[in-house]
Design brief:
With 432 residues, the protein is mainly α. The chain is built from 18 helices and six strands. The structure holds s-citryldethia Coenzyme A (SDX). The site of s-citryldethia Coenzyme A has 21 residues, from helix 17. S-citryldethia Coenzyme A (SDX) binds next to helix 17.
Length: 432
């Protein structure tokens, strides 16, 4: 889809009036094209946090924050979570259409045949302390892929871009699972070609050489759904990081490593880990009012983790699916009345009635329930964001491919509003 001119915006600044094109896409807000603003007025736009800035044109994911709508290539997240599966969603995000049976079989074959890591990379893990955070390991190991897979780092070669994309989708579960195994001192488990994507990840995490490990199909389906929910999300902070890194023609492995680093922050993908830690700290429903008060207190840096979103000013559609998944998994594990779930549900109920949250349109986001599900599956909190990164890799690489193949792509280089010192002469230290 390409943009269409919808009209013009008139701007008068310093007594000069200019016309700026207004461009429209297929759905969602139109944009005012300010690419010639500086040349015509000597002014920059100013938008820290990019609350009103479209940094690119994209066909991949659409979010309507007011309606609580999320579409991957036009398909709603609710339908995909219910009717599709993660590897089919990967195909959809990467190539723009749902695959037919032959296309799915071929894609699944490519991914299955790239799940192993270069054997020397096991040494790379051993350079880390056992208590290293899995996200620190993921950033290092993914960045190091460029040192092992030189035949897919030339971003100007379409075939190499394709191979790098398949490699990233295929290897992330192995990289994440091995980060977990390394942190608990257990041997690495190799991927198996007879298991589907989610089951393979669960098997690499939880099986041990001493006995056969059977992946519970309900757990595998829940993991698959979690991956689908996290696969892509428009131009969020980590995706924007991947795009900006990619705009310098950096190799795809370096770009994904940059995305992982950004996702780690508790304001972004690290919120699932922070949210479960918060629920544990609250402990019992009677302590919720104390934390609600802290979240509202401007002098207290505490925020309700898993609540609020830059775009969603309605319920995050992913959180609804995740809440349902939480019920299924907790029931399977036999802890459907877990204190953590009770605290989460009571916290949500109270917050959604509190004027502070209602006025600011703060709703549970995807991270509010994901930690509860992953905890019930047996993952430590330190693995939550690594699982988010594993799932989001397809979105990152799809957005990177879209950017790299755009003939108008240029290096991203924002400007600034300078408020520092004017030019001044150097003063010798004896005279300061
Ligand atoms: C993800 O962008 C994406 O798409 C991200 C993501 C993805 O899939 O890629 O969806 C994944 O990152 C989800 C968000 C996970 N983060 C958290 O759950 C951390 C807690 N949430 C917040 O830190 C916050 O809501 C953000 C970072 C998510 C959004 O921040 P914004 O858009 O910059 O909002 P803001 O900080 O300007 O807040 C607006 C107001 C402020 O109060 P006032 O100054 O108006 O009085 O709402 C308040 C904030 O203090 N507020 C909160 C709050 N979130 C916002 N107050 C208490 N608790 C919170 N969680």
């Amino acid at each position: 889809m390409t943009e269409t001119k919808q009209g013009t915006a008139t701007l008068t600044v310093d007594g000069k009036t200019i016309e700026l094109p207004v461009l429209g896409g297929s759905v969602g807000p139109a944009v005012i094209d300010v690419r010639k603003l500086y040349a015509q007025t000597g002014h920059f736009t100013f938008d820290p946090g990019f609350t009103s800035t479209a940094a690119c044109e994209s066909d991949i994911t659409y979010i309507d924050g007011d309606a609580g709508q999320l579409l991957y290539r036009g398909y709603s997240i609710d339908e995909l979570a219910e009717k599709s599966h993660f590897l089919e969603v990967c195909y959809l995000l990467l190539y723009g259409e749902l695959p037919d049976e032959a296309q799915m079989k071929e894609f699944e074959g490519h991914v299955t045949n790239h799940t192993m890591l270069h054997e020397q990379m096991t040494n790379f893990y051993r350079g880390f302390r056992r208590d290293a955070h899995p996200m620190a390991i993921m950033v290092g190991v993914v960045g190091a892929l460029a040192a092992f897979y030189h035949d897919s780092t030339d971003i100007n070669d379409e075939m190499q871009r394709e191979i790098a994309s398949i490699r990233m989708v295929a290897k992330m579960p192995t990289i994440a699972a091995w980060a977990y195994k390394y942190s608990i001192g257990q041997p690495f488990v190799y991927p198996r070609n007879d298991l589907d994507y989610a089951a393979n990840f669960m098997h690499m995490c939880f099986s041990v050489p001493c006995e056969e490990y059977k992946v519970d199909p309900i757990m595998a389906r829940a993991m698959d759904r979690i991956m689908t929910l996290h696969a892509d999300h428009e131009q969020n902070a980590s995706t924007s990081t991947v795009r900006l890194a990619g705009s310098s023609d950096a190799n795809p492995f370096a770009c994904i490593a940059a995305g992982i680093a950004c996702l780690w922050g508790p304001a972004h993908g690290g919120a699932n880990e922070a949210c479960l830690n918060m629920l544990r700290e609250i402990g019992t429903p009677d302590r919720i009012p104390e934390y609600i008060a802290r979240a509202k207190d401007k002098n207290d840096p505490f925020r309700l983790m898993g609540f609020g979103h830059r775009v969603y000013k309605n319920y995050d559609p992913r959180a609804k699916v995740m809440q349902e998944t939480a019920r299924e998994v907790l029931e399977l594990v036999g802890v459907e009345n877990s204190p953590i779930l009770q605290v989460a549900q009571e916290l949500e109920r109270i917050a959604l009635e509190d004027p502070y949250f209602v006025e600011r349109k703060l709703y549970p986001n995807v991270d509010f329930y994901s930690g509860i599900v992953l905890n019930a599956m047996g993952f430590p909190t330190s693995m939550f964001t690594a699982i988010f990164a594993m799932s989001r890799t397809v979105g990152w690489i799809g957005q990177w491919k879209e950017m790299i193949s755009d003939p108008n792509q240029r290096i991203g280089r924002p400007r600034q509003l300078y408020t520092g010192a004017n030019e001044r002469a150097y003063v010798d230290v004896a005279k300061r």
